[in-house]
Amino acid sequence: MKNIFAVFLTMILIGILLSGVSELPKFAAEKNPAVNEVMTHYIEKGPQETGAMNIVTGIILDYRAFDTFVEASVLFTAVIVVIMVLKEFYTKSLVTGIFNESLILREVSRLIIPFIQIFGIYIILFGHLSPGGGFAGGTILGVSLILYGLSNNPINYDKKLSYPILIRLLCAGMLLYGFLKGYAFINGGSHLGFHNPPLGTLGNIISGGLILPLNILVGMVVAITMYFFFSLFDKGEI
Amino acid sequence: MEALMNNYYETGAIILFGVGFALVLLNNNLIKKIIGMNIMDTSIFLFFIAKGYIAGKEAPIITGVQKSASAYINPLPSALMLTGIVVAVSTTAFALSLVVKIYENYGTVELNQITKFKED
To answer: What residues form DSSP beta bridges with A225?
Structure first.
């Protein structure tokens, strides 16, 4: 009885939303209302004002950088909440749980992890010149850390990815992002005229003002977040 | 009906939203409810990013010489939905951590058994 009522409710909701979709402008037309002066300003003046050849990276890290700052803080809040719920703060014996020793996994991951990390660092550094950026590259770096955590016995390896170091890196990344973009905000908004980071020539890696350091910070935050989520759900500790 | 067939991306996104909504309502298992919530998030991303496409234009990355503003698609919906994807990951992680704690406390993830435990 409850199932029939649930399906009926879903059908009514979909019917209302589809009647709204039928009033939308035509898909991929040229004269859509979404194609307005904001978009033309971002495309025409974007590379000169921000120094980024990837216009989407120029938008999320220069024009709307505070949006990205709050999004990184949402990720940070999720990490803190999951640590509060799942992490055991009293000392737990490390011999609990079953760990499957696998020689092939350990040796192959020892060969592959440097290449995965180089790929992730490449995507982070070239974020303003080609598709990619801090979020995609940070996810790939986090995946390499997860592979390291999966293939090594927690008793044997001296803890390279320890909790105090990683949590300090995470908090330092967030604070540094706030300081860098806060400086640019107050400098430009109050017309103080202090020294701005140079824009450089279009097409170099070291160009685009603050976009390169912000990409690196965002990549670091995302990688540490991915590793924390895996480690907390798998082992209950970091 | 013709308008729905012309905007097939948006229609598919709304149907996917309905599928995710039905998954949340119809299932007894807590993890399947969280999967349904994730499907609803993904459908909204598809709906919004499809708004930025203009037929025949290319991606907003400048290779070589910069063309005029009428040669690229709209970069704004893609930039806005990056925030949404991160928020979806964060809420899924938080919900799953709560399910882990519920399992440790009650021993089951079926919702009708948990309410039966709480009644007596």
So the answer is: none
